[in-house]
TrEMBL record:
Catalyzes the reduction of fatty acyl-CoA to fatty alcohols. It comes from Graphocephala atropunctata. GO terms for cellular component: peroxisome. Signal peptide: none annotated. Keywords: Lipid biosynthesis, Lipid metabolism, NADP, Oxidoreductase. It is an enzyme of class 1 (oxidoreductase). One of its GO terms (biological process) is long-chain fatty-acyl-CoA metabolic process. Its EC number is 1.2.1.84. This is Fatty acyl-CoA reductase. The lineage of its organism: Eukaryota, Metazoa, Ecdysozoa, Arthropoda, Hexapoda. PANTHER family: FATTY ACYL-COA REDUCTASE CG8306-RELATED, MALE STERILITY PROTEIN 2-RELATED. Residues 85-210 form the Thioester reductase (TE) domain. Belongs to the fatty acyl-CoA reductase family. The keyword Protein biosynthesis does not apply.
Length: 211
């Protein structure tokens, strides 16, 4: 008669806790760490609260995280990194901007491409954007958030992204990572308009990133 082996019931909470307890060793490189496995020598597992690792224990309260604090692999990847985001006023762009500012304590800087629209300048639209309640927690926990964001006036549907010479030089000199999220999602637009934004716009951002 075969001996039956009783399997322990799957515990989702334990699985998530173990998964999120991954922490980068202080001596580990902070770039080119993907893909990684638990066997990689520069990773270590520690039994600690995953929310503490992610900096989530200060929910709704201003926080200060020491430069010496080692975070998750994603947090460490973005340590000191300057990011260029297009489509920052859209649904995904807003969430991305908020998440980077709030969850990456040692992020370098965000350069946000916003176009002038309907009589409002890019700065006017940015000020209006910050009134969205999605940024409420970020404002509470990272009071100096404005020092992390620079608005860049531009339009992906225009040649050269309609960037000024100074802004173009600024981006080329400082940006490390590009998130391209700008697009025309109105499916009833004439093909030439959709092409200018969704195809040529992506090509222009790619060309800028390659310079």
């Amino acid at each position: 008669m075969e001996k039956q082996i009783m399997k322990e019931p799957f515990n989702l909470e334990k699985y998530l806790t173990d998964s999120l307890s991954l922490q980068v060793n202080a001596t580990a490189p902070t770039r080119n760490m993907y893909p990684f496995t638990p066997e990689d020598p520069y990773l270590k597992f520690e039994s600690q609260d995953p929310l503490a690792i992610l900096g989530e224990l200060s929910f709704g309260k201003p926080r200060e995280i020491s430069e010496d604090n080692i975070g998750t692999p994603i947090q460490e990847f973005f340590r000191g990194v300057n990011v260029f985001i297009t489509g920052g006023t859209g649904f995904v762009g807003k969430l991305l901007t908020e998440k980077l500012i709030r969850s990456v304590p040692h992020l370098g800087h965000i350069y946000l491409l916003i176009r002038d629209k309907r009589g409002k300048t890019s700065q006017d639209r940015f000020d209006l954007l910050l009134q969205d309640k999605v940024f409420s927690r970020m404002k509470a926990e990272v009071p100096n958030y404005l020092g992390k964001i620079t608005v860049v006036s531009g339009d992906i549907s225009e040649p050269g992204l309609s960037l000024s010479a100074a802004d173009r030089e600024l981006l080329l000199d400082r940006v490390h990572v590009v998130f391209h999220g700008a697009a025309d999602v109105r499916l009833i637009e004439p093909l030439r308009i959709a092409l200018a934004s969704n195809v040529l716009g992506s090509q222009r951002v790619l060309e800028l990133a390659k310079e």
